[in-house]
Amino acid sequence: MEKSEEMDGNFFESLPEGFIANAMARTSPKDVCTLSLVCTLFKSAAGWDAVWEKFLPPDYQKIVAAADGCSKKEVYLRLCDYPVLIDAGNKSFWLHKLSGKKCYMLAARDLSIIWGDTPRYWRWISIPESRFAEVAELVSVCWLEVRGRIDTSLLSSDTRYAAYLVFKSAPHTYGFEYHPVEVSVGLIGAENQTESQIKTVFLEPEASERYRHSEYERSLPGRRRMGVFSRLRGLASRANATPPQIGPKRRQDGWLEIELGEFYNGKGQDGEVYMSMMEVKGGNWKGGIIIQGIEIRPKAS
Fold it and tell me: Per DSSP, which regions of 175-237 are E strands?
C-alpha cells in the first residue's frame, strides 16, 4: 500500500508543471483550489497566471483599476470580493468565486419603476450601505410595479441563473402584512422566447411566517380556515399564480432579498432577460420599502 502511494506521488511529481497548469485551466476555480492540495507541484501550478487568466473576462483590464503588478489570481479574487460599478454607476459587476461566472446587480435607477419620478410616490435617496449612489424609497402607492432587463450576452453562457430583488424594509413599512406580490422572470428573443411563470411571495418576513403557520394549522384535523389567510389564497387564485410560499432572506450585507425566478442562459443565446415585481390587484396603499436593485447570479445547485 505504501509502495503504491509512493508511486502515485512520483508520477505526479514527474509531470511538467506547465502541463498541470494547462489542465487546471480547463477546470473551475473551485477545482483548482482543491487540486492545489494534492502535492507541492500542483500547488505551484495552481498559482500560474495562465490558469487564472482563463477564469477572467476578456476585458478585465478595463474593469479592474490598477491591475498592473498583481497576479491574475489576485485580480480574480478582487473581482469576486469587490463588485465594480459599470455603466455610469447603474450596474455592479463581479465574479462568482467558486465558478467564475459573471454576476450583475442592476441599480434601482436602471429599473423601470412606475411613478418612480413622482416625489409623491417614490423618493430617491443616498444611504451609506448601498453600493450605488441612489436607492428608491417607496413613499406610498396603490399600484406597485418594478421591472428590469438585461442582455443575455452580458452573462456567462451554459449557466442557470436566478434573479433577486434586493431591498430593505424600513421601520415605517406598511401595506405588505397580508398582501403578497407577484414576481416573474422570462426570456425575450427571436429563438428563445419563454413564458414567465408568475409566483407570489411576501416582502415582509413576518408575513411569510404567519402564512406558513396558518397553513400548518389548516392541515390539522378539525381546524377551520383563518379568515385573513383565506383572503390571501383567494388573491393568489385570482392572480392565476401559485399560493404565496416564501419570504425574503437576510443577506450577509444586511439587505433582504427575494427570488424573482430563474432562467437558463444557453450557448449562443441572444436576447433579453426580463424581471418583474408587482402588486396591482389588492388595491391597498403600501409604502416604506427601499430598493437597491435586482441581482442576477448563478443559481445555487
Answer: 181-188, 199-201
Q: What is the pLDDT of residues 99-132, one digit of tens each?
A: 999 999 999 999 999 999 999 999 999 999 999 9
**Residue 291: which H helix or E strand, with range?**
strand 287-298
pTM, 2 dp: 0.83
pLDDT at 197: 79
Alpha helices in 36-183 (DSSP H): 40-45, 49-53, 60-63, 72-81
Please give the grid coordinates belonging to residue 269. 443565446
Give pLDDT, residue 275: 96
Tell me which residue of 137, 210, 143 sits closest to 167, measured CA to CA. 137
> How many Cα neighbours within 13 Å face the side chain of 12?
18
Cβ atoms < 10 Å from Cβ of 76: 23
- The three state secondary structure string of 11-63 is HHHCCCHHHHHHHHCCCCHHHHHHHCCCCHHHHHHCCCHHHHHCCCCCCHHHH
What's the DSSP call for residue 153?
G
* Spatial contact of 300 and 170, defined as CB atoms under 8 Å apart: no
